[in-house]
Amino acid sequence: MAVDDKVVIGQTHAADDAEAVLIGYLLGVEALRAGKQALMWLTKDGVLLATKGYSDDLVVPGAPSIKDLQPSTSTKAAGSSPAPCASRPTGSRRRNGCRARK
Question: Residue 70 gets which letter from DSSP?
């Protein structure tokens, strides 16, 4: 891939700003349609979007369904674990709900 074949979308909102969530998802969909890799960087309230079913109730009137744009868990890429979990070495003890990598 060329250097410009990747798109990073920062998502800091969830139910507090459903329109911002919609815009981020639409950017991701269009990046994928253009043949680019898309990574959504979730921070602050945006981390709630990674919770299964969370986006089901987010609605922007007159806009595409956020639920339908939500990527399925089967499309997760390598390294999709939260940073504290991903950086924990194999065999380490569980802390903060993280499981050791295999």
Answer: S
Task: Let me know: does 12 contact 46? Beta carbons within 8 Å.
Answer: yes
Query: Diameter of the chain by CA atoms?
Result: 49
Nearest partner of 66 among 88, 49, 45, judged by Cα = 49
Pair (34, 84) in one structural domain: no
First-residue to last-residue Cα distance in the chain: 28
- Asked if residue 85 and residue 66 are part of one domain, the reply reads no
What is the per-residue pLDDT for 69? 86
Mean per-residue pLDDT over the chain, rounded: 76
7 in Cβ contact with 28 (< 8 Å): yes
Residue 81 has pLDDT above 50, yes or no: no
Query: 44 and 19, same structural domain?
Result: yes
